[in-house]
Amino acid sequence: MTEPKLAEEIKKMEYEPLLPIEKKLIGWSIALGLILLGGLYWVSHTFFPGH
Q1: How far apart are CA 44 and CA 17, in angstroms?
Q2: pLDDT at 10 over 90
Q3: What global pTM score does this model have?
């Protein structure tokens, strides 16, 4: 018996839109990542200046 292929299984799946809470979590995650990246940039340029 052969196992079903991944592509075939994906085609069988129904489309499920994101829930509002999922959209909110994605937005918060992206915002937090950008804020932390900005903080890291500021710390590196403030305390470890280049040439």
Answers
A1: 40
A2: no
A3: 0.66
